[in-house]
Amino acid sequence: MSDSKLAGQFFDAAIGLLTRVRDEEAESIAAAGAAVADTVESGGRLFAFGAGHSSLAAQDVVYRAGGLALMNLLTVPGVVGVDVMPAPLGSALERVDGLASAVLDSSPATAGDLLVIVSLSGRNALPVEMAQNARALGLKVIGVTSVAYAENTRSRHASGGFLRDHCDIVLDSKIAIGDAELTVPGVDAPFAPASTVVTSAIMQSMLAAAVEQLVARGVEPPMLRSGNVDGGHEWNGRVMTENRDRIFYRH
Predict the structure, then answer these.
(1) How much is the average pLDDT of 174-187?
(2) Sign of torsion, CA 181 184 189 191?
(3) CA 115, CA 214: separation in Å to the nearest integer?
(4) Which residue stretches of the chain are H helix?
(5) Per-residue burial over 153-178, b = 16 or more CB atoms within 10 Å of its CB, e = otherwise
(6) How far is CA 124 from CA 97, 150, 166, 181, in A?
(7) 126 touches 118 (CB < 8 A)
(8) Where is the SIS domain (predicted)?
(9) How many other C-beta atoms are found inside a 10 Å radius of the C-beta of residue 69?
(10) Cβ–Cβ < 8 Å for 194, 16
(11) How far apart are CA 55 and CA 119, in angstroms?
């Protein structure tokens, strides 16, 4: 069987986007890493949030091998994955005014903490209000989004603003509107989205930059090891015990 031309084209597209992000967002990623390091060093807590498929990149940095133990998932019932039934309900909830404030008010997030909000379009009420309210509470907010949406679509929030308008630091994923990299005759819709690949890479690069900053400051970052290597469970148990007041996925 010969190699798939379309599969190769998708890899090329993803690599091209990753290269653009690496080169064009380097300064912003370094700034985001420094902000994470500042929060770790000062005793603050770290949170990540995403809705729908944007939640995949947020989940990818929480409680995982090689990850920063202090990163917590800020969950909004019904919007974190496609397991909600019916699945379109999750998309509808992203447009509900007031949901973000209710979630933040009942969460452990407080002034001095940091929240990373992942939203590809950044146009729905939920991510916009999440950023607005988090900053009002005194959190540092990092937005991971596609600036193309803010420049070429209309906001669905009453303010007319996008996620990027309410963040301390914005990381642009460079994903084109529609999030589909390939087209082919005979298929009426574009396909092969790359946002998960690129956004997850942005999140991991940001945390790598944070680790670099912490080491330079003489602070050992609390990292998790794989539970599938010898000693991993014991290591993780110690790290989570030492940082129990900043970790919420254990309770």
Answers:
(1) 95
(2) negative
(3) 18
(4) 5-24, 26-42, 55-59, 88-93, 99-105, 125-136, 147-152, 195-216, 232-242
(5) eebebeeebbbbbbbbbbbbbbbbee
(6) 9, 11, 13, 23
(7) no
(8) 36-221
(9) 22
(10) no
(11) 8
